[in-house]
Amino acid sequence: MAESHAAELTVFINGRFLTQPLSGVQRYAREMIRALDRRPGAGTRYVLLTPPGADPSSLDLRSIPVRTVTGGRGHLWEQIALAWAARRGRLLSLGGSSPILHPRQRVVIHDAAVFRHPEHFRRGYAVFHRVLGRLLSRIAVLATVSQFSRGELAAVLGLPESHIAVVPNGADHLMRATPLQGPLADLDLTGRPYFVALGNLAPNKNLAVMIRALGRLPDPDLRLVLIGAAAPAIFDRAAPAADPRVLFAGRRTDAEVAPLLRGARALIFASLYEGFGIPPLEAFAQDRPVIASDIPAVREVCGDAPDYFAPWDDAALADHMAALLRAGPAPHRFAQGRARLAFYTWDGSARRLETWLAEDRPASTSR
Questions:
Q1: Among candidates 210, 307, 196, which has minimal Cα distance to 257?
Q2: C-alpha 326: how far from its chain's center?
Q3: pLDDT in tens, 101-143
Q4: What is the pTM of this model?
Q5: Helix or strand holding residue 166 (H, E)
Q6: Helices in 226-330 by DSSP H: which ranges?
Q7: Which residues contact 184 (CB under 8 A, 6 or more apart)?
Q8: CATH number of the structural domain spanning residue 306
Q9: Rounded to whole angstroms, how far apart are CA atoms 206 and 238?
Q10: Rg of the chain's alpha carbons, rounded to an integer?
């Protein structure tokens, strides 16, 4: 059904993401709300609803009011307490999950991974989110983060692509970070050549191909730094690395990631499947080259800026790594990377989001 009197209704924002570990989805929600907070009239249009225990102070909101909603946690809070608290307005959920009982809602689903690659997730997680995605596709107005994901979601949910808007990620958050000086010394990287991989240690990140590629390079001083944490409640556990030159750096703040990226020979982004892929843009924000798997979403976002390899081809990845160790990046790569970065900003995405919110789009049941 079409949304009625949309301009007159408060937009309640689902704040459940504030209780979750930071990954690409939570990054999107955080940065989008920060950007919305700077939009004209934000203080009268939006209200952020948070569950007990959430800490919105890190968002540094100056206009959008925050309201704590009691009543359970996790999915229980979202499906019952949030739906009731937002019943007199519209609900905006930026993290792919939303209550199925709310009649006027817009939801950003970031990718179709639970449909296309359920083997990458714990079985219960994949089943629940497939069911939830199908239900939301019938009652909510949907958006996603790339043209590739729009096509994927349309195919698996049985929707026309025109029913799914595209509101992409940004990466300029890493340009705002004040770099800390300690991470390189803490990880014993000072003076060493190293490559960085950035993202949660999930199966789709393809750690195995990076470790095999490292094994083809004999330099004992070379390091592969993996920044991110495992999420065993969501993803199957990744096999541990056998090469002692692999460093697990764990979760890091933006202020720590910035110098680690800037000191690296390149970012390696070896994903098997992505709906978007923020880390290459974060590398471009630090003027670093990218070696990336040749998959559709990365091609869409990054254009010709990275060196590409087939995601199973560790020999090709090792060749790219060796070339960067030997000769450094080609100068034109930096200009290409900055051009891609300029296209994906959080302020630009917030403007697209508000355009989408203002459109009188039908929910899928009215097609």
A1: 196
A2: 32
A3: 999 999 999 999 999 999 888 899 999 999 999 999 999 999 9
A4: 0.89
A5: strand 164-166
A6: 254-262, 279-285, 296-302, 314-327
A7: 190, 259, 260, 263
A8: 3.40.50.2000
A9: 9
A10: 21
